[in-house]
Design goal:
Elements (H helix, E strand, L loop, with lengths): L2 H5 L22 E3 L9 H14 L3 E5 L7 H5 L8 H15 L1 E8 L7 E7 L3 E6 L5 E6 L5 E5 L4 E4 L16 H22 L3 E5 L5 H16 L14 E6 L9 H15 L3 H4 L5 H27 L2 H5 L3 E5 L8 H12 L6 H7 L21 H13 L1
Antiparallel strand pairs: 1-5, 2-11, 3-4, 3-8, 5-6, 6-7, 9-10
Amino acid sequence: MGLFEKLFPGRADREKINTYFQTLTAYSPVWSTTGGGVYEALETRAAIHAIATHCSKLKPHISGSAGKKYERMLQIRPNPWQTTSQFIYRLATIYEVENTAFIVPIPSEFDDNEITGLYPALPSGCEIRQAADGRMLLKMSFPNGKTAYVDYDRCGILTKMQYDNDFFGEDNRVLNPTMQVINMQDQAMKESIKQGAAPRFLAKISNSVRPEDISAERKRFIRDNLSVENNGGVILFDTKYSDVKQIATKPFIVDSDQMKLINENVNKYYGVNDKILKNEWDEATWNAFYEGKIEPFALQLSLVLCSMFFSDRQIAAGNEIEFSANRLQFATTSTKLNTIVNLLDRGLLSRNEGREIMQMESIGPEGDGYFIRGEYVDAATKLKETDTDQEE
C-alpha cells in the first residue's frame, strides 16, 4: 500500500461528480500548481527556506478536553512520515511557493470520520465539485495520474494573495519579470565564464588561398599557438599573416545596483530582508519579521486546524489549537533577564517558564509554582483598611 492509498483509502473511486460548485466570481473553482518555478532560483528559494525554517519552530498548544486526544499527534508526529517540524516546514514551503496549501486528514482504519493524522498534500490540480446532496468536494489530481475526492469541510486550505478566486490563492505571475531577469543574469554569467576560458583571434592572411588551405592553416595555427602545449603564452606567425588580433568579448552582466534591486524585489514579495536571510538579525528585526510573516501564518494554521478537528459547539466550549513561538528565546540576554525579573515576582511566570526563556532545563514539578512579592498589596483592600482606621 502506497502513500496515496494511505491518505485516500476508498476515496479514489468515489462517485464521479461533474458539476462545478457555483462561485460568486466568474472564475471556476479550479486551482493548478505553478510547478515550483519560483523554487528553482537561488534568490527565491533562499527567501522561502528562511520563512519555512522559522515557521517550523512553531509549537502547537491545545486547549479544551476535546482536543487532548490529538495533542501528542500534533506536537510530535502529525503523520507516520513527518515530525511536527517537518510537517510545518513542508506546509509553509508549499504555501509560499503556490500561495495555496492543502492539509489532508488521514482517516482511521475503523472510522472514516476520525482523524488520526495530517499530511501537507501537493496536488498538480484541484477542483471544487458539488455532489448530488449539495456537499462540496475537492477533486485532487496528482502527478502520478491518480485522482481523489475529499470532503471540502474535512480538508484544510491555507491561502494568501487571494483576490479573484473565491477559494484559492493567486499565482506568482507578478514575479515573472524579476524571475526572467534572474534567469538571464545566470545565463550571462555562464557564458562569460565560457568565453573567458577560451581566447578568440581574428587573423588576416595576406595572400589569396583556396578555402581548403584556409581550413588547414586555421587548424595548424590553433595547434601551434592556442593549444595547451603552448604554455609560454607567446604567439608567433610568419609573413603570410598581415594581421592577427584578439577579439575581446564582453557579455552583459547586471551591475551591483541592478542586482540589489532584483534582490529587493524578491525580498519585498516574500516579506524578508538580508538580515533574516543571512541569520544576522537582532531582536527588533526578528520581532518585525515574526509579526509580519510568521504570526499571520501561525494564526491561519491555527484557525484551519480548529475547523478541521472541532465542531462549532466544541469551539464555543473552549476547544482550540494555537501555534506560537517563544519570542523571548530570540531576544537579547538583557531583555530576557528584565522580563523574567519583572514577571516572576508578580506571579505571571513560574521558575520553569523562566528557565525555558533562558534555554535551561526544567527543575521538575517544584518549579511550576508561582510567587508574588510580599510587599505588593491590593489597592482596594489597602484603601478600605485606611478608611476603617480613620473611622476608629
